[in-house]
Amino acid sequence: MINADDVKRLRDRTGAGILDCKKALEATDNDLDKALDWLREKGITKAMSKADRIAAEGLGAVIINDNEAVILEVNSETDFVAKNDEFKNLVLEIGNTILKNKVTTLDEALKLETTKGTIHDLIVAATAKIGEKISLRRFTLITKQDQELFGSYLHMGGKIAVLVVISGGNEEIAKNLTMQVAAMNPKYIKREDISPSDLEHEKLIIKEQAINEGKPEAIALKMVEGRINKFYQEVCLNEQSFIKNNDITVKQYIENNNCDIKQMIRYEVGEGMEKRDDNFADEVMSQLN
Fold first, then answer.
1. Which of 3.30.70.590, 3.30.479.20, 3.40.640.10, 3.65.10.10 would CATH assign to domain 57-169+263-268?
2. Phi-psi region for residue 263, left (φ > 0), alpha (ψ -120 to 50) or beta?
3. CATH fold of 4-52+276-288, please?
4. What pLDDT, in 10s, does the model give residues 124-179?
5. What pLDDT sits at residue 229?
6. Average pLDDT score, the chain
7. Domain 191-260, what architecture?
8. Residues forming beta bridges with residue 164, ordered by sequence position
């Protein structure tokens, strides 16, 4: 029996239609590589540039070496590939190379030499071998002071990656804060980090919401103050309820433990990117039956 996941993988690699992929697998006893050759021999494979494909899956990673750390995101087209050990090793090699050379831009990173060519060469080779578009999307390098601590956390194996720097405290506190960041997705550490223009924009939105609710402008202006505090609680790490004790805020938690949060970075794989159709398996099954 033809497996829908195999049809999906073959279609991802070739761009051929679902029914053609089904025929190819039937003709080759479900051997993906032979099915790929079968489609090529029949001239059915679609001339599909990998550069134009959607790569919004993948992994985030954090690598720490003494006082330096890097957080990065490498994308693939499917979650299936992201779970592959070869892909995981590629992510680590890219991260270690960036950390060793301390570059700051993607262009610089892609030109870095490894034992197997540049990072760009590694990505091209992996793309050719795996059959999916693979790309280094972003990274951030952080250097801490001797008295500071790194905290890192990977959720779901790397679907969300978090890196924080704290002064004071200990590793357990740092870990708790990274889990807070992963779960609650704050955009800022404290309200002072919000730019004046972003804050005024948010206040304007709150005011217009109140007016659209039928409130007079004078009352709407008074409502802004109350609602902006709720906004702070949503987007500022320090003002969020602490996930391990909702009776206190994160600010109270760090004050109770004599520490401070210096830096915070959170990467969620594929955030802000176009996603593939999650109903593809249903589409395949409907045509296989």
1. 3.30.479.20
2. beta
3. Helicase, Ruva Protein; domain 3 (1.10.8)
4. 889 888 888 899 999 999 999 999 999 999 999 999 999 999 999 999 999 999 99
5. 92
6. 89
7. Orthogonal Bundle (1.10)
8. 151, 264
Specify whether the CB–CB gap between 168 and 260 falls below 8 A. Answer: yes
Beta bridge partners of 264: 164
Which H or E run includes 182? helix 171-184
**Where along the chain do the CATH 1.10.8.10 domains lie?**
4-52+276-288
pLDDT at 50: 57
List, by residue range, all CATH 1.10.286.20 domains of the chain.
Answer: 191-260
CA distance 256 to 251: 9
Task: Indicate yes or no: pTM above 0.70.
Answer: yes
- Decide if 2 contacts 22 (C-beta within 8 A): yes
Residue stretches of the chain with pLDDT short of 70: 43-54, 274-289
Torsion angle, CA of 78/80/86/89, rounded to 10 degrees? 70
Supply the pLDDT for residue 47.
42
